[in-house]
């Protein structure tokens, strides 16, 4: 049933497809005392019930009875790590509508229709004979602080918790880690921790970890000082922990991954809320070194957000538009490229995107996995629905988050509300000759750099150019 709906624009007459692609239609912003809000009550999946996929694909549960699975990561030996987490909570409410929004969002995230299990752990799934079914399952790490992203290199597992990148000694094949971690570098955490998910990607040369750090508010309601080092993607030296801001102005980036054709870093980004149901489109973009993408002063280049004070026309002038819009409020959180997978055409060369689903609308948007075809390293066509059926009427069976390719070349989808990881495979049973890890198979090529000038000193309020070196105990 609908939990709350507030006026906020004529979205039923708006063509959602006009906001999918490189040049989205951007209507005039609208504001209301209460933003448009509607979420689906989470009811979970019944036995034997699954999402839907198109002809040529088949979908089965890969792992069930999980505890809010957010991301999936395949190791070089084919083992799959499932990162399960809940947010740290405790963010202060500074506006009356924040109370309503908090209540709505707590229901939207649900628990899959059952009792809540202990979360904040990483579970290892092993398919020993590569038949698409898990034969062994064990909890690799427990008691973590709201983890999200992971990476593996040189017998070391890197975990992005909400307040630090941790490193653990880990050899492939181990089913449990008992060693204490060391802190590679702290990340911005509490006491305010509005966007708590921190994703990770390993550079093609294996030397650098890229970490996503979302903003600490919708549009700086908590002050600019609270945004220091946030709304950005960090580059972290894997050996020393030395950190710097790689790109900024990204309100809530996730799904960090490298394009296997070009070696370019890509991400999906959740844009700002409360400008109406049809603003602002979430997006997928290549991430250029030194680039500024607008938040909080503007969106899609020079579209100024008048709610932000003081205004910064100098920053608006620097802002570059993203590559590909996904339409407004879909809450894109997962991204993976299909190149080298065992999936059939037309899904063999493009990007899968996990859309968690809208709240800032009167009509649902997202709640599905879409596919965007690529040519020559760039998006080349409209997003296509691939995994649907998460939402039915006003109820949600689940909500997709992270996506990845498993050790057989099939697509995995982490469903945090349905407490399931789904496996989407070619209907003819095709699989890759051998496993390819999430951190493998990307060519090391020069990184394209933004042509704009370096970030001016005033921008350090949002993302400082030099960040603390790692090795400490965290913030």
Please state the average pLDDT score: 88
Assembly state:
single chain
- Total beta-strand segments: 32
**Contiguous runs where pLDDT drops below 50 for at least 5 residues:** 1-9, 444-461, 464-475
Largest sheet: 5 strands, antiparallel
Classify the secondary structure makeup into a structural class: mainly beta
Portion of residues within helices: under 10%
Radius of gyration: 21 Å
Report the principal-axis shape. globular
How many helices? 2
What would your notes on this structure say?
By secondary structure, the chain is mainly beta. It has two helices and 32 strands. The protein has helices spanning 96-109, 313-318; strands at residues 20-21, 41-42, 57-63, 69-74, 80-84, 121-126, 136-141, 149-153, 156-160, 164-169, 182-186, 200-202, 208-213, 232-237, 243-248, 253-258, 265-269, 281-286, 298-299, 303-304, 324-328, 332-337, 350-355, 368-375, 378-379, 384-387, 391-392, 395-396, 400-405, 411-415, 420-426, 466-467. It has a five-stranded antiparallel sheet, with no helix packed on it. It has a five-stranded antiparallel sheet with strand order 12-13-14-15-32, with no helix packed on it. A hairpin with a 5-residue loop joins strand 29 and strand 30 (411-415). The longest helix has 14 residues, at 96-109. It is globular, with a radius of gyration of 21 Å. The relative contact order is 0.20.
